[in-house]
Amino acid sequence: MSRPAESIHGQWSSRWAFILAATGAAVGLGNIWKFPYIAGENGGGAFVLVYLLCIACIGIPVMMAEIMIGRRGRQNPVNSLRSLADEEKRNPHWEYLGWSGVIAGFLILSYYSVIAGQAMAYVFRSFSGVFEGVTADGAQSIYASLTGDPERLLAWHTVFMVFTMIVVSRGVKGGLEKSVKFLMPALFAILLLLVGYAANTGEYFNQAIDFLFQPDFSKLTGEGILIAMGHAFFTLSLGMGAIMVYGAYLPKDVSIAKVSISIAIADTLVALLAGMAIFPLVFANGLEVGAGPGLIFETLPIAFGHMAGGALFGGLFFLLLVFAAWSSAISLIEPAIAWLVENRNISRKRACVYAGFATWLLGLLTVFSFNIGQHWLLFGKTMFELLDYVTANIMLPLGGLSIAIFSGWILAKNSSQQELAIQHPILYHLWRILIRYITPAAVIVVFLKVTGILN
Ligand code: PHE
């Protein structure tokens, strides 16, 4: 199977457009909703340190590998992997790696959309002033009233899925690129404002900084390390082909190393800012750091409820969060759409209807996990928790491991050297050492540790 010189879906109009789109894919609920709550549940500092190490030593090299494979293959992840394997005269079954990505994207989007729906509901609540003067108890009961109502969750999940599929159906330039140009900078500005507000809490702000940046290794479990590593993949959108398929639309002359580093820095900054905005409020209001998935919905309204213009800022904040989730959601489903269009020969619109409907349907499991299905447990987890755990902590790291092996061991040195075109030989060697040895070893060791094989 030969590979096309250009993707049939078009190309990003510039390097900048790609950075925005990939940053849009990376920055999402993972940074603002998930990072703070898992950092809280896993004891803070030491967890954050492991997460940062994983971003630098595993995330950036794997991101470069994914973009490289995508740009060289110029097709959906399944076909790209197969044609590159063919070209190197290696086993074509590498295409299954593409498959696992398509499936992971579909599973993640099914619950992602429900959480994004909760953020949508909060846009309206904020603007309408519901949070004015709200107490910690009040904020908790407002959140509980939303999640306890399956019909409302379902309605918002539906709205979010429809919006997502509309953007995806418009394709690379029309849909994906346009939607991220102003959203990212605006989100960043509001986050800074929130951190500024949190900084006014004085000692609580310091307590939050200590919590996030003073590592206390006695609080870190093997499971916590796995969650930190899984989150590094999740937050950078790695291990499932999203960044790979975006790489397929990347112009030839762009430096893959530079864009990867920029995206990782922006993504990390947003997560850390979110933590710095949220934890001071947690401490100032005597809330639980390990409150779980409701954390941002139960803390931020308190800040908005007590600041001047809070209804407006709160509404804007949740609106931007929805947009950030949106630009990630489109990347979660893009591998499946590209596959349907390329291999099933159907139109992009039709592909969106099929894939969107299937995802919506699976999303019902998450909708019910918050209410009537609270007690449907498997391995002690609700359906939502299970979907999240299996995708983020198992499928993405395994996908990342396989991508590292593919690009470090299967792809010839010549091919990766040519595609990455890193000027300094030392930097190229550094990448190759990381991708050939460090990434695979790290993922394997963490897995062995969690399963108890390694103590
Ligand atoms: N990176 C996104 C976030 O942090 C989630 C995501 C994961 C998007 C995997 C695409 C692929 O919210």
Can you characterise this structure?
- 76% of the residues lie in helices and 0% in strands.
- With 455 residues, it is mainly alpha-helical.
- It has one domain (15-450): Amino acid/polyamine transporter I (Up-down Bundle).
- The longest helix has 34 residues, at 310-343.
- The relative contact order is 0.20.
- The mean pLDDT is 92.
- The site of phenylalanine has 15 residues, from helix 1, helix 2, helix 11 and helix 15.
- Phenylalanine is lined by residues 25-26, 28-31, 108, 234-235, 237, 240, 242, 328, 331-332.
SSE inventory with pairings:
Blueprint: H1 15-26, H2 29-41, H3 45-73, H4 77-87, H5 95-127, H6 136-147, H7 150-169, H8 172-180, H9 183-199, H10 203-213, H11 222-235, H12 242-247, H13 256-284, H14 295-306, H15 310-343, H16 348-369, H17 383-410, H18 413-420, H19 425-450
This protein binds phenylalanine.
Amino- and carboxy-terminal Cα gap: 45 Å
| Unreliable sequence segments | none
- The CATH superfamily turns out to be Amino acid/polyamine transporter I
CATH topology: Amino acid/polyamine transporter I
Q: Supply the CATH class.
A: Mainly Alpha
Beta strands, count = 0
Order of helices and strands: HHHHHHHHHHHHHHHHHHH
Strand content: under 5%
Which kinds of small molecule does this entry bind, naming each only once?
phenylalanine
Overall pLDDT metric: 92
Radius of gyration: 21 Å
Describe the largest sheet.
none
Number of helices: 19
| Count of all domains | 1
Secondary-structure arrangement, i.e. CATH architecture: Up-down Bundle
Structural class: mainly alpha
Principal-axis shape equals: globular
What percent of the residues sit in helical stretches (DSSP H or I)? over 70%
